[in-house]
Amino acid sequence: MTTAAGRAFAKGHGTANDFVLVPDPAGDWDPDPARVAAICARRTGIGADGLIRAVRSASLEAGAALAGEAEWFMDYRNSDGSLSEMCGNGIRVYAEYLLREGFVPPEAGDGRWWGIGTRAGLKRVRREPDGRWTAHMGPWRLVGGAAAARAASDALVGVPGLDGVPRPGLSLDLGNPHTVVALAGTDELAAADLTRAPVVEPAPPHGTNVELVVPLSGVDVTGDSRADVGEVVMRVHERGSGETQSCGTGACAAALATRLWAGEGAPDVWWVDVPGGRLVVTVEAASGAAEGTVLLTGPAVLVADGVLDPAWAAAQPAPPAAAGLSPVPSR
Ligand SMILES: N[C@@H](CCC[C@H](N)C(=O)O)C(=O)O
User: Fold this and answer.
1) Which pathway does the record list (predicted)?
2) Global pTM value
3) Are residues 273 and 146 in the same domain?
4) How many Cβ atoms are within 10 Å of 309's Cβ, its own excluded?
5) Which of 241, 272, 326, 328 to mutate to test the pocket of ligand 1 (most atoms within 8 A of CB)?
6) Tens of pLDDT along 308-327?
7) Which residues form the domain of 200?
8) Based on the domain organization, do 290 and 264 belong to the same domain?
């Protein structure tokens, strides 16, 4: 919403994946990629991995069909200004924000499921008694189907900072695209240079988020391991944002890939330890090895509220990072 002083925003994060949230119920503020990139810039803007426009589903062409089940739509932009279909950390922070702002009734915080529209369709969220949120992430699938499940990979990934030998990767669709790569150990995970994007072959048509994982099942590094819970450590290079401290859809992809690689009898619940904390992934139902549905649980923290200075906003030139973007990944 715009006041005489400028446009209001909030800042929040989920496991240190951070977002600027901008209320725009009527859908009359549609920032171009350069404006989003300027707001998300770490040194000259507010700084964030992504921007979430809080818009009523009915106010947006992409949300109109979901308006009956989801009053609010998460219009998600990466920090380079490109659109994404879905954000697993962002949707929890968005839910907390909608609740705090009174955009949804207080009962939305009492443990019941309610809907949020996204470009990846309707998602349901629920506030846990401890204040974390669970998002029903809906369907996932292996991009390469049953053949990729049998082969356990469908891509080769060059990871900067390692030995130059491409590693096998597995492509998953969580509404947005992911490629998961297993590394040999935490030393290798630490050595990866994610200031540069991993190179995925064949190149996914709309780009991809790349998760580097080290499965830890059976190894009690955190001192709290449980026999019925799988554990994986992850770093991520996000499409449109670079390395981030966490990625919720990526955590789901990492858990699903690792569960497939672990084979028969692997747990349904996974702890995914990211630089920003821990996410819990619950595989709800799998029809075969190549598709199913999944839930994600984690924290949602609102940090600050502010107002964009109108003079600053008016003065923003297009930053070089925004040049040549293809804003809508049509799938
Ligand atoms: N950090 C998010 C994912 C954000 C979108 C992603 N970079 C993409 O382009 O698909 C998450 O928590 O899922």
Assistant:
1) Amino-acid biosynthesis; L-lysine biosynthesis via DAP pathway; DL-2,6-diaminopimelate from LL-2,6-diaminopimelate: step 1/1
2) 0.93
3) yes
4) 12
5) 241
6) 998 888 887 655 544 443 44
7) 139-298
8) yes
